[in-house]
Structures are given as C-alpha cells and as structure tokens.
Amino acid sequence: MKIIFGFNEVGMNRKLLLLSNSTTYGTSYLSYAKDMIKAFLGKHEVSEILFVPYARCDYEDYTTTVREAVEPMGFSVKGIHTFPSPVEAVNKAQCIFIGGGNTFLLLKTLYENQLVEPIRKRVLEGNLVYIGSSAGTNVSTPSINTTNDMPIVYPPTFEALNLVCTSMDTISHNLLRVKLYVIYIYIYMIPSFVMCRVCRPPIAVGPLSRLACSRGVI
After folding, report:
1. Per-residue buried b or exposed e for 131-145, using 16+ beta carbons within 10 Å of the residue's own CB
2. Closest by alpha carbon to 94, among 74, 122, 135?
C-alpha cells in the first residue's frame, strides 16, 4: 500500500488526534487509545476537554461514558450541550473531542449550532486541540462524502470542518469499497484500532499501522 500524506498551507500548527473508532466488541471505551490520548493531551498542556456528543441522541449518557473513560487519565470533561452558548464554549475551550455515532446527524447539528466555522478557525490557528473518533474523525475532513453511515438526516451541505486536506473512511474493511474510492480520489483508510496524529509528518499508531491508499493503488 502506497501512503500519501497531504497538508494545507494554512494550519501547520494544528494539533489533531484522529481515532478510527472508540469501542470494539470485547474492549472498554477508548481502551486502545488511552496511552496516546494521555500523552497527546499532556504534551499540549490540556486540563479540560469539551466533549461534543452530537453524533448520538442521548447527550448526557454519552458524555458520562466519555467522562468515565477520560477523567481517570487526569482530564476533566464537560459536555457542550450543558453550555448556554455552544459557540462561546468552543471559543473558550482548550480541547474539543467530537465523538462517534452517525456522521450525518453530527454534521447537521454542528451546522445548526453554527459551530463549523468557529471550530475550523481555532483549530487551524493552533489554538484548539482536536480529538475525533469515528464520525468525529470523518467531519475533520473536507467532506463526509466517504462516510459509511446511513443518511438518517441531511445536513445543509456535506462540506465538513476541513481540518485535514484529504478524505477519510474510518473502520473500512470492505476491499471493493476501498477500490471504488481510490480509483477516483486520494483517501485515508483508517482501520479499527488505528489513530492518526496530525503533525509533520503524520503518524499512524496502533496494532495496525496502515493509514492510507493512493489513487488506484491498494
């Protein structure tokens, strides 16, 4: 597999950790990523995480799950849904963690709360640490055109946060689907248990080290 990496000219100070998934059968929430998350947040002196549960319906329950997994690492967690102004919460946050679920629902809710531009601006300026898991990784890309999720709702556009300049497909194991993608576009394929730390150069970590396909090459 040939690996292709790409960067925007703007945003070289980005601090992103992109996870393929958060939970796999037989493991606890974020168990495979705990060491990397702790090291990543510690490096950037983060003490509090703003969690975005918009990809699922029960915000409070989802936030509790994340809090129980992350707070033992030494970081406090607050759900964005508990703030009167989501935009103000983003503008004051040290770190934002956008969790997995349905990518269409997530992007639609980000637009409804007018969060796409504030998140993009602060991350690209290097002032907001970003962690994405599954759907949260999907929306870090230019668009959600490559998501595996069912379109249970429709966002106003498929254009996403555009924090990285290439498309991604998380938890992709369907080889035919991969081949159809890479004929036309450059795309990161992130299998389960793989994390991508966006830096210069990007780093794939986890039990599987595959990160990307080039166009037409697997």
Report:
1. bbbbbbbbbbbbbbe
2. 122
pTM to 2 decimal places: 0.79
Q: Please give the Cα distance from 118 to 57 (Å, whole number).
A: 23
Domain boundaries, the chain: 16-213
Structure tokens at 155: 């966002």
Read off the pLDDT of residues 117-158 as tens digits, 9 standing for 90 and up: 999 999 999 999 999 999 999 999 999 988 888 999 999 999
Which pLDDT tens digit goes with each residue over 150-205? Answer: 999 999 999 999 998 776 665 555 444 444 444 444 444 444 545 555 554 444 44
187-190 β-sheet, strand order = 167-170, 187-190, 212-213
Domain 16-213 matching CATH 1.10.10.60: the answer reads no
Q: How far apart are CA 11 and CA 122, in angstroms?
A: 10
Output the CA torsion 48→38→70→46 (10° steps).
0
Which one, of 195, 168, 199, lies nearest residue 36 by Cα?
Answer: 195
